């Protein structure tokens, strides 16, 4: 069984096109690192500077712990830190957004 985690991030002003371009193709190494960490799907929607992610992963906390020390992810996060208002340092017990409703 996997978890479905929703996340929200925000781009720095004027970084929309660069963010889209960077995500047009991620490296095979980053793809492999995410999959090794248990990610089965990661979707991102953008409205202006607002980013909404849905991550399907075996264990979100274990994924974050594994990626925190992965050199490929560290390099990727350095790129993201130039684009996002608040960079993710992979510390803490983040569990994404709280779900408040679902159509049964």
Automatic annotation (TrEMBL):
Q: From the UniProt record, which GO molecular function terms apply?
A: racemase and epimerase activity, acting on carbohydrates and derivatives
**Name of the protein described by the UniProt record:** L-rhamnose mutarotase
Taxonomically, the superkingdom here is Bacteria
Q: List the Pfam families.
A: rhaM (PF05336)
């Amino acid at each position: 069984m996997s978890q479905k985690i929703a996340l929200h991030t925000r781009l720095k002003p004027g970084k929309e096109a660069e963010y889209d371009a960077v995500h047009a193709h991620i490296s095979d190494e980053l793809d492999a690192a995410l999959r090794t960490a248990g990610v089965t799907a990661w979707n991102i929607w953008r409205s202006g500077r607002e980013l909404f992610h849905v991550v399907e992963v075996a264990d979100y906390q274990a994924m974050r712990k594994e990626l925190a020390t992965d050199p490929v992810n560290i390099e990727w996060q350095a790129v993201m830190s130039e684009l996002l208002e608040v960079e993710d340092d992979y510390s803490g017990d983040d569990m994404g957004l709280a779900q408040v409703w679902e159509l049964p």
